[in-house]
Amino acid sequence: MTTTVLPAAAAELGEGPRTARLAREAIASGLATTLLGALGLVLGVVAIFGPTRHLRIDWLLPLAGVRFDVDPLGGLFIAVTGAVAVAVGIYTVGYAQREHWARFPMVVLPLFVAGMLLVPAAGSVPTFLLAWELMAAASLVLVLSEHNRGAVRFAGVFYAVMTQLGFVMILLALVLLSAAAGGDAFTTIAAHADDMSAGTRTAVFVLTVLGFGSKAGLLPLHAWLPKAHPEAPSPVSALMSAAMVNMGIYGIIRIDLQILGPGPQWWGLTLMILGAVSAVFGVLQATVATDLKRLLAYSTTENMGLVTLALGTASLLSASGAPDVAAIAMTAALLHVLAHAAFKTLAFLAAGSVLAATGLRDLDKLGGLARRMPVTTVMFGIGALGASGLPMGAGFVSEWILFQSLIHSPPDGNTLLALAMPLSVGAVALTTGLGIASMVKAFGVGFLARPRSVAAEDARESPMSMLTGMGLAAAACAVFAFWPALVAPALRGVLDALPEVGGDTAGVQLATFLRLPGIDGSLSPALLAVALAAGVLLAFAASRWGARHRPAPVEVPLWACGAETLSPRMQYTATSFAEPLQRVFDNVLRPDTDVEVTHFAESQYLVEKVTFTTRLADPVEQRLYTPVVGAVIALAQTVRRAHNGSVHLYLLYGAIGLLVVLLVAQ
Amino acid sequence: MSALSIVAAVLQVVVVLVGAPFVVGGMRQVRARLEGRAGGGVGQPWRDLRKQLRKQQVTPRGTTLVFAVAPAIAAGTTLLIAAILPIFALGSPLDSVADLFGVVGLLFLGTVALTLAGLDTGTAFGGMGSSREITIAALVEPTILLAVFALSIPGQSANLSAIVSATLDNPGQVFSLGSVLAFVALVIVIIAETGRLPVDNPSTHLELTMIHEAMVLEYAGPKLALVEWASGMRLTVLLALLANLFLPWGIAGADPSLLAVLIGVVAIAVKVSVLAGLLAAGEVFIAKLRYFRVPELLSGSFLLALLAVTASYFLATPTR
Amino acid sequence: MSLATYTGVLDLTAGAFLLAAVLIVWRRELRSIVHLLAWQGVALAAIPLTEGLYEGNPGPVIVGLVVLVLRAGVLPVLLLRAVGTADAERRESTPLVNTTSSLLITAALTMLAYAVTRPIIALDQAAATRAVPAAFAVILIALFVMVSRRRALSQAVGFLMLDNGITATAFLITGGVPLIVELGASMDVLFAVFVLGLLTGHMRRAFGGTDLDQLRELRD
Amino acid sequence: MTWIGKIRRVGRIVEPAPAAPEPTVAPPTGVRGSLQLRHVDAGSCNGCELELAGAFSPVYDAEQYGARLIASPRHADGLIVTGVVTHNMHEPLLNTLAAVPEPRVVIAVGDCACNRGVFATAYGVVGSVADVIDVDVQVPGCPPTPDQIVTALRSVTGK
């Protein structure tokens, strides 16, 4: 008891000034983030509707100069990032104080946001790469902000290596592009895109899909995401999962759909396969995950997979001569990016609120938060509803549009479409189904029922600033769930700038009713909500029938099958909840289970205890990454022989290197 | 949208509310007769409902609002579906509010509400039922959406009125390969979603073998009545949907006369009774599947749905 | 019989034909597998019957009747006799590929069949040709059944299904084969089943079961 | 198709219903013909269980009078208790009764449940059911016949 009391007392007595300073710094950092975000939001919205704005600062970067061209597509991503940053900034004010952040992450947080805002604004290859690197480095620093934990350090190294590998691929692709186009501005490259050789285009496509796909968390280069996102502090997780992954999507749209598009059919097909595999794999992992933030991170992979699938559909359809349906798919992709940003911000902020209150991320130990943290529970519920893609949730409308684009592609004579579309519907449907299961698990096991640990029992609601940040994100979720028409003009503006994927056709009409021109299909999320409310009221009214005959209502203990009490340990946990699905998909998930039976020494027939352990690793990571890492280590061991510690030898290496460079330069 | 089609939609809700317990009762009665019993009669579920509605409200300690409102949400989604579907007449005023994808979404919303309620109780059985229910729901979703896809191909739309009128305009397609496969797939899906044999046994007494029942084990009195009512309505609505998707004859048009609506009522009553009777009779011959064999059944139905889409897709080019 | 009815019936027949194959993959009970094979025989016989009735041509009708007797009557009865009486013999207890995967593979095979037969359909839009993918899918599924089943009897069923598929393809593409050819093919199949029946009997006497994996012992 | 043949051959095997007995208690909620019961074995020799199973079998079919056995006491209108109340089952019996929402009935089946029967002096016994909780209907007999049980059930359902 004394050990827990003492530090708290010390904090109150001796560290008053420190607390005040922490508060000042947290407010400054949060406010800076929010203001940057608001600025980005405004600029982004202006860019979507206005003409493309240019800004050149030649002195800032030697040789190339810095160049910003903000067009509608970039504007959309700037606006999304800005909006996420606004909510996260307000949230951070409370979170940084509660979690006692050091000064360093507080300074880097606005920098990270700035980097993300600059990426879509970049108008030339050097500027883009610079902004990309700023974003990557800042996020790495933020991931490492709790570096005294081993898991964080491991995740940081993993993230650093993978993000740099991705960067190298993007670098190569963009250098190839500017070399082929003879200029480094994106406008120049776009103008010369049609003259490029097929080989260059293919190489650029493959490299960008790998590089940007890795940032978006697509398979097989997703492995950093479920490690780095959960280990980062929650506001940073929210920024990474809701805003940074979008940059990967932005890159794919910008380079592969806009500048080089419309590509051949296999480009679209590749994107569809990558997207479908990522979506199904991500959601399967989310279904069996027991770590709340890891679950959300895998859900990010899932949703980015869905977006990529939609992008692939758009690309494939416009290459197959169906630009009007391609535009519908593109709308689905963009709307899903927006909706995902809203609900994932909310979910990660709520998870952070739980983490701050209990110190727990393990769903097996959580529970009973609904009574202890009601606002956070409601917030997470809204986010989870959005992530599950059910009606009344933020993700429903975009998934509905995606389905419409998949079922309305004209099959006439095209075997490829006739095979791809049904399989895609199956994949997306499986994703939605499992997504529902994973979100029911996260919400039902984590927040409802009874607390499974002392920490969860002692949880207290988060401060006002954190709740406000979540509230903003929840409001955005409500917009996407009930009134997506609000963002219709913005989507229209972006689509107009994307004629490569049918942006010049009618597209989806987003008003009170969503209508698809030329196609018989409509949905009205707002009216559906009103009608559902009426239905629920009617059901309530029906259940009031006979009420005057009823004895007075009572509260009773839970039915324990006749036994005295039902301990919280008897509840289903997240592991047991997902066990059936894990069994069904054990060919894919490859769980590692162990049952160990210890017998009494006296008799073989009496069991003293039974231990059951199950471990779920990421199978892709195990199969694909372990051999690669092994090979790299083996190579490093070979190279190590050259390092014998002699300064003379090292100088000799330098000299030889110089000679080689001189000879090659000849 | 005429006044009568609004009346028809309201009537659909009312008739489903009133008729659902009779459908359940009828099914039990068919089963009882085939087993050589007398049975409680078609009105038994109604008597049970009335009785439960007069009983005490019981709130298990520690449950939250989720537990309290879940039955109403489950019933509310089903009622909304009843208003959207073309049961008596085409062109419900809510037809353009949600298409078949929306209807499926609403169905799952109801399932999720009860699942969360099962978890909310914090009992072993509640969690067990929820876990099983959500597993089945997750595996059902691909089949159901693929079947929707297959059905939407002839009418080029997933809006229900469009699908049904496409069938009415072109009756031959009911007996096409795609349609038959989609029918079988949908039947399996409906059995799984409404917790009938062989997926779940609605009359089991053993908690360990339960799926739906385990989830609602803590409900009592009026809330239990609502849960049972909702599950009966869900069965009724799904059977009506099945009937009208594949055998829409008798349904009133988009701008119906009073007589047409009445014919529609009679037609659907006959169709649902026949379907329910067949389902109940079929149940006499089968035992419940082991829980981990259910995915086999569902993957089979997934295959059928996929074949349905493929068949309709590849054969969509009209014959000359 | 109008064109619409003819198209509908043919379409449905092809569907039933394919459905029987899918169900054979699905079920494990040998007895019901044989019953399903009989139903498939009925569907197969219905193809020339429908064609004959539609065209008013007695040739295909006779072929259809012969097929009906043979495939839906004689062969299943012979196979049923071969089903063992021991409980262990009545089920395909542990197929090499589990049921769920089998079904997904079946789905893939069917889609493949639809994809590869597109050129044939493109040639001729007649109702009969448009049912060819179903027949072709049955051929692929039959091959899969033969690969993945352990019991000798399931193998025989797979073999018969293969033959059904080939016959159906022939009926659908060429509008029927000459009676004598069909009779010859059916005789072949009949003999094959006799031989299989004998073999099964021998196996059971030699090994006490019809698990084909035990044939490996012969190598040593 | 042997099952269909069997169903046809067997037909209806339920025994004809005798005239309804005098109601002993009013139906708990005022709705006739609906009674869901949770069965509690408080310490029975399983003789009464067999007869109880008989009462709900196709031959006697208590379900035709609206009575049904169910799994959860929350869903029940009352308890049907068999056997003498033992020490171990004393608490569970009380807990189960408390879990049944009001209004509720308790039916004690068999001599042991009514008056301790042959276990009257056994060391593990608390008492008869009536010693522990309020009992509305008692069905004597060791064991009572299914007919007696059905009659008792009908006297509560009023059908």
From TrEMBL, chain C:
Which keywords label this protein? Cell membrane, Membrane, Transmembrane, Transmembrane helix
Classify the protein's membrane topology as the record does: Multi-pass membrane protein
In terms of InterPro entries, this protein maps to:
HyfE-like
Asked if the record carries the keyword Membrane, the reply is yes
Where in or outside the cell it occurs: the entry states: Cell membrane
What GO cellular-component annotations does this UniProt entry give? plasma membrane
Q: Where are the transmembrane segments?
A: 6-26, 33-50, 62-84, 96-115, 127-145, 152-173, 179-199
Q: Cross-referenced PANTHER family, in alphabetical order?
A: HYDROGENASE-4 COMPONENT E
* The protein's name: Hydrogenase
UniProtKB/TrEMBL annotation, chain D:
Q: Where is the NADH:ubiquinone oxidoreductase-like 20kDa subunit domain?
A: 45-155
| InterPro entries xref list | Complex_I_20kDa-like, NADH_UbQ_OxRdtase-like_20kDa
Listed Gene3D superfamilies: 3.40.50.12280
Does the keyword Iron-sulfur belong to this entry?
A: yes
Which cofactor is recorded for it? [4Fe-4S] cluster
| One protein family per Pfam | Oxidored_q6
What keywords tag this UniProt record?
4Fe-4S, Iron, Iron-sulfur, Metal-binding
What is stated as this protein's family in its record?
Belongs to the complex I 20 kDa subunit family.
* Name of this protein: Oxidoreductase
Organism, scientific name: Pengzhenrongella frigida
